[in-house]
Amino acid sequence: MATKHEQILAFIEALEVGDKISVRQIAKELGVSEGTAYRAIKDAENQGFVSTIERVGTIRIKKKQKENIEKLTFAEVVNIVDGQVLGGRAGLHKTLNKFVIGAMRLEAMMRYVEPGSLLIVGNRDQVHKIALEAGAAVLITGGFDANDEVKQLADERELPVISTSYDSFTTGTMINRAIYDQLIKKEIVQVSDILTPLEKTQFLYSGDTVERWHEHHDESTHSRYPVVDTNMKVVGIVTSKDVINAGDEILIEKIMTKNPLTVNERTSVATAAHMMIWEGIEMVPVVNQSQKLVGIISRQDVLKAMQTMQQQPQIGETFADLIANQIVEKEENGVESFTCEVTPQMTNHLGTLAYGVMTTLVTEVGSRVLKKYKKGDPVVENLTIFFIKPIQIESTIDIRPRILEVSRKYGRLDVEIFHEGTIVGKALMVAQLIDRH
After folding, report:
1. CB of 363 closer than 8 Å to CB of 383
2. Which residue, 108, 140, 104, is CA-closest to 121?
3. One Pfam match, by short name (predicted)?
4. Would 313 be classed as within a structural domain?
5. Alpha-carbon separation of residue 163 from 75, 143, 212 (angstroms)
6. Which backbone phi and psi does 103 adopt, to 5 degrees?
7. Is the domain of 10 the same as that of 73?
8. Quick one: how many helices (H) and strands (E) in the chain?
């Protein structure tokens, strides 16, 4: 039987896109406490089919697919620009295809405005009306209001008209940054992208016997299975080691490993990989917010996904990418080293190389060296850095890594950082080496 939390989530998901939701309404309609209703609404927001907007409330939105994650909803725009919704609230769940800054003559502006776009413009009532008639939402900058005719038209067309106190340039920059951040998120491969779904997953119930394990094994040749209770909640893992010397009539719950490690669909593949390698696990159950089984991932699935990720171009550059792009490799007298210029973006408020950037530089250089020495993917396990002298802005530093030890699973390096021939930092890095095969 579904829990109250699950019943509320199902109720919310069944609502029409654009419907307003409140804690009091949910509590009254489903006969639950307001605390239970509040927790379920927050869970729905985390899962992406509810959005809370200041001064508007909580509304049911269309859950964005992975391929459309870079598109913002108008509800998200309201939160980004600290906006106020003047009209067209029923359209807040819609996504914008692009935004146009209206700092031009009307004729030129309308060449760029199209259905599904967002026009960012100041106090120009006629422009607001024409944009809505063309199927675009409107974001009014400078804190200005819209006239009643525009608000009425926005409600009729279900196209939001939003007001913000920011100027057009700042507003455009904020929205552009949000889209850019979404692009980076799109490139992060999650467990949901690689899992074997429930309908293709073999699992056992805690009340099954060892005989059932043997039936699964004969059919699939797999040796590990998640164990669930009657509500499909994961309660254990059973492997070939557990069933050795166990009679066919023994219950699975008597021999299984209880409280197994699990991941959810939104866990990144990199996090799952580190956990599986560190714990020496071959298979991990994937669960939802209610800890119910939704599928599994195997070590092989994870490693294959990580290899694919490394071969794909990154659409949105992260800070780590920008720092890595500054590193230049060189070799003198058979000794490999790396140089890097300290750009303004890499410094702290004192104008010296930031600690976090130093960590990224050492990690990147160390990983490059280990990849050359041994075919595998390094995952940093321990990093100790000694800052000997501050490194000034626009300095060029030499980074000289030296391999101390490499085994089948681990690599240890000593890294020295020089500026103008003087040592300014040292680091000791230990990394796990994940076999690509």
Report:
1. yes
2. 140
3. CBS
4. no
5. 13, 6, 63
6. -95, 55
7. no
8. 16, 22
* Amino acid, res. 292: K
How far, in Å, CA of 220 to CA of 228, rounded?
Answer: 19
Where do we find the tokens 């400078």?
142
Chain centroid to Cα 318, Å, comes to 13
Model pLDDT for residues 183-194, shown as the tens digit of each residue:
555 556 788 888
- Dihedral sign, Cα of residue 98, residue 54, residue 161, residue 109: negative
Q: CA gyration radius for the chain?
A: 28
> 114 near 95, Cβ under 8 Å?
no
Domain of residue 295 covers 192-308
Cβ-based burial of 299 (10 A; exposed 0-12, middle 13-18, buried ≥19): middle
Q: Can you give the CATH number for the domain in which 339 is found?
A: 3.10.129.10
Catalogue the E-assigned strands of 55-130: 57-60, 84-87, 99-101, 118-121
Task: Give which of 192, 197, 198, 199 is closest to 66, Cα–Cα.
Answer: 192
pLDDT of residue 228: 94
* Residues 41-81: tens digit of each pLDDT: 888 887 777 877 666 678 787 665 544 445 788 888 888 88
Pick the closest to residue 83 from 73, 68, 71, 97 (CA basis): 73
376 within domain boundaries: yes
In a domain, 127, yes or no: yes
Last residue of a domain, one of 287, 308, 329: 308
Distances (CA, A) of 67 to 51, 63, 398: 19, 12, 41
**Structure tokens belonging to residue 234:** 């994961």
What is the phi/psi pair of residue 349, to 5°? -65, -15
| Integer Cα distance of 435 and 304 in angstroms | 11
Same domain, 242 and 142: no
Question: Going by DSSP bridges, is the β-strand pair 99-101/118-121 parallel, antiparallel, or unpaired?
Answer: parallel
133 contacts 104 by C-beta, under 8 angstroms = no
Query: 283-287 and 263-264 as β-strands: parallel, antiparallel, unpaired?
Result: parallel
Residue in the structure block whose two tokens are 């239970």: 36
Tell the residue number behind the tokens 């669909």, with chain if given. Answer: 265
CATH number, domain of 174, equals 3.40.1390.20
Angular region, 394: left φ>0, alpha ψ -120 to 50, beta rest:
left
